[in-house]
Design brief:
By secondary structure, this protein is an alpha+beta fold. 37% of the residues lie in helices and 24% in strands. The protein contains 3 helices and 4 strands, in the order βαβαββα. Strands 2-1-3-4 form a 4-stranded mixed sheet, with helices on one face. The mean pLDDT is 96.
């Protein structure tokens, strides 16, 4: 399961969504951090962040489709 942590009205988040589409990433959940103090504290300056829940790893922005494809294929 993948989770994309993002904000409302975030152009970098829009670029991350485009990279996910271009890389043909598997289905993911979008979580908006704007109204959550704990998520804001953890991800506030880092969004967008993609988290692989199964592996417990995160990919911070910036990433493109090529980097994303490699990251998704890592064990």
């Amino acid at each position: 399961m993948l989770t994309l942590f993002q904000r409302d009205d975030c152009h970098l988040c829009d670029l991350a969504l485009a990279a996910l589409a271009q890389a043909r990433a598997p289905e993911f959940e979008s979580v908006f951090i704007d109204e959550d103090a704990a998520l804001e504290a953890r991800y506030g300056t880092r969004v967008p962040v993609l988290r692989d829940e199964a592996r417990g790893v995160e990919l911070d922005w910036p990433f493109d489709a090529a980097k994303l494809t490699v990251w998704l294929g890592e064990p």
